[in-house]
Design brief:
Blueprint: H1 8-11, E1 34-36, H2 40-44, E2 48-53, H3 63-76, E3 81-85, H4 89-100, E4 104-110, H5 116-125, E5 128-132, H6 136-149, E6 153-154, H7 160-166, H8 168-177, E7 183-187, H9 192-206, E8 215-221, H10 226-229, H11 251-260, E9 264-268, H12 270-284, H13 290-304, E10 313-318, H14 326-333, H15 344-354
Parallel strand pairs: 2-10, 3-4, 3-6, 4-5, 7-8, 7-10, 8-9
Antiparallel strand pairs: 1-2
Bound molecules: ligand F0G.
The site of ligand F0G has 22 residues, from helix 4, helix 9 and helix 13.
Length: 355
Amino acid sequence: MSFNNKSLINKYKDYLPISNKTPNITLGEGGTPLVRSMNLGPSLGCQRLFFKLEGCNPTGSFKDRGMVVAVAKALEKKKKKIVCASTGNTSASASAYAARYGLDSIIIVPSEEIALGKIVQAMAYGAKIIGINGNFDQALSIVRNIVEIMDIELVNSINPYRIEGQKTASFEIIDDLGIQPDFLSIPVGNAGNITAYWKGFKEYFESGKSTGLPKMMGFQAEGAAPIVKGEIIQDPKTVASAIKIGNPASWTGALEARDESEGLIDSVSDDQIINAYMKLTRLEGIFCEPASATSVAGLINLVNNGLDMSEKTIVCVLTGNGLKDPETSQKNSGFSIQTVDPNLHEILKLLKNQK
Ligand code: F0G
């Protein structure tokens, strides 16, 4: 088992609530690339813009960081089953770790609204999938009730171990940059991740690993922006299905991150999200899912509104892999494949016409 010494849990064990009774499990989560912007940042006048590619985690999203700790604790408690509500990524992650470590996973999802790749993952990992004719908030409320009456571990981010694991992304950013960023831009849905990043930045600061704290900039989609509006949204709507959430469980954590860091939580329109999503693929070669692009859409808005970021170090968290939502990509890429006979002449003719 010495190979597991490289695990996320082992790497950051001094900062995690684990003991020698906690199994040191891993699926290879964490250690994701922090990539410097080549074109988008400079086009905005931001010379030090970085993207944290959380889509490079084993199930394609940041959820794996938190899930590995939550599942390790479930195993420590001898639980046999885990359950979550999800807009897709949590369920993919939960069912992968459950499959690997011999647990049953039950996932409750809004049946009409999950991106194709995510539901395919949960099916492949063998989860018990229950779709509801409702939204994420309703699914989470049902899951909270289920754990009252069944012996089953809840692995949504209201499970504190999820937040503990997810905060390791902040550690990695500081480890890679050698210093804290000035700004951290992040999508906000159920608000667990912004809460986790802020916790991570504070802990590293308190232990002397950084010299200050970033300003936290959270972004919600306009049709699903309860924190920005200051009220629960009963029927949230957005193209960014991962963050289609009207009543975030970690609402207070998000407000604390915003206020303590003197940052902001704002909203971006669906058009702005898709614009940022396309810019990331075409200008950076980075394919993230629409929800992830809200971090970049928000930054673009701030710069367009006159915020001077030229001297600042900014990290945009790209939370999930673009492959998870092929339908949104296909809809927005605007290309169809031209098919011709396998003939050089035909192909050269096509290439000439494209000039
Ligand atoms: N980005 C992606 C790709 C997500 O899947 C989520 C949340 C978020 C951002 C927002 O993070 O909820 O911590 O504020 N997805 C959850 C899920 C809700 O069920 O997969 P948050």
